[in-house]
Amino acid sequence: RHSLPGRILRAIIPKWGLLGVRAQMKLPANEARREMFSRLNQAQVHHDLLCALRDSLADDDSRLKFNRNLRFFNGIDSALFNSTIVLLYSLYETRHDTINFHRLLEAIEDRASADQLVEYRQRIDAIKPLWIQVSILRNRMVGHQALNASAISVQSESSLSVGDVDQLLEASKSLFFDISSAHYDTHADFME
Questions:
Q1: Which of 97, 164, 187, 192 has the greatest number of beta carbons closer than 10 A?
Q2: CB 10 within 8 A of CB 78
């Protein structure tokens, strides 16, 4: 008989690497591409709905309805904002166990030229300043609430505007379209 800690370790060690990092399950490249497409579409739709909700408050009748149902509309606004931020954040995070642009490039390394990979990485680098603004919101307000800053101060620090989100979405969709067209023999048809 083995001790309980020994049995637990023997059960865990095959599932975890030597450094304690869980072994990665790899999705087939095309499935990872489909999941990335879905995340991009979700981010676009949630952002568009959020903008439409906020734009609808321009007229008096809509503001009256909004004020009568303040908790409902505030909840929708928060959910759409939070979802958009989390989805945009996930596209460029550098984790090895999630679907993101960095893993998508790894999946095509065997069928993309060195020049193409350099171009894609340069485009990701160009997008990075906008992603950093998103990551400030995700890491200090949406995904976690910082103890040392209010939501308003985090939003101010991030200085992410609606135009910035539009720009990040357009750059992401363009990059994804080019990767899909060149390396997956398909193209991405985004909901617009």
A1: 164
A2: no
